[in-house]
Amino acid sequence: MTDVTTIYDRLTELTKRSLVAARDVAASLGHDFIGTEHLLLGLAQTAGTASEVLRAHGIELGQLRAETVHQLAADGAPAPQGQAAKDALSALGIDVAAIQRRADETFGPGAFQYPRPAYSLRAKQVLQVSLRQAVELGQQRIDTEHLLLGVLAESEGGGVRVLSALGADVEALRRSVLERMESAA
Q1: pTM metric for this prediction
Q2: Dihedrals φ, ψ of 92, to 5°?
C-alpha cells in the first residue's frame, strides 16, 4: 500500500483544492466520512480537466449533489455530524459548540469544523489508483483528471453509482479523460 504522504506530495494544487472541496461538501452534508461520491463532487466544483469532462458529458454540480444526497439517504448513510466525538469531548468538559461560536466570531462563519470527515477505504483506494494512473501515464503529479480516473475505476464506489444513476456512461467518461490528456501532451 502506498504511503498517503507520498500521494499528497504528488498532488497538484487543483487536486488539493478538489480534496478540500470534497471534505467541505461531506461536512456540509453532515457526513463524518469522505466517500468517492464526495470526491466526485469536489472534482465537479474545482476547475480542471475533470470538471470540464464532467460538464462536457452533461454532468452538472447541482445534479451530482442532489443524486449524492439521494443515494446516501437511500443507503441509510448516517449524518451524525460528529456527534460521538462531540459527546466524548463534552464528557471531558469541553464545549465544542462554544468553541464553534468563538471561532466563527474570530475567524468568520464556518472556519471551525469538528470533527473533520475521514477518507473511506474506497476513497483511499481511489487516491492510490490515481497515483498508479499518473505513473502509468508517465506523469509525476496527480492532477484532477487522474483523480477522476481513480473514481471511475472504483466501480463499486458511490461516485460511479451516482454517475450511473444520472445516466452517465462511465467508460465514455474514462475515454474522454484519456483523450484530453493525450491531446494536452
Answers
A1: 0.81
A2: -90, 0
Residues 36-74 pLDDT 10s: 999 999 999 999 999 999 999 999 999 999 999 999 888
Integer Cα distance of 49 and 36 in angstroms: 18
Amino acid at 158: G
Domains of the chain, first to last: 4-80+114-184 (1.10.1780.10)
**Cα dihedral: 122, 119, 109, 42 (round 10):** -40
Cα separation, 52 vs 17, whole angstroms:
15
- Region label for 109, one of left (φ > 0), alpha (ψ between -120 and 50) or beta (otherwise): beta
30-39, 135-144, 161-170: which has the highest mean pLDDT?
A: 161-170
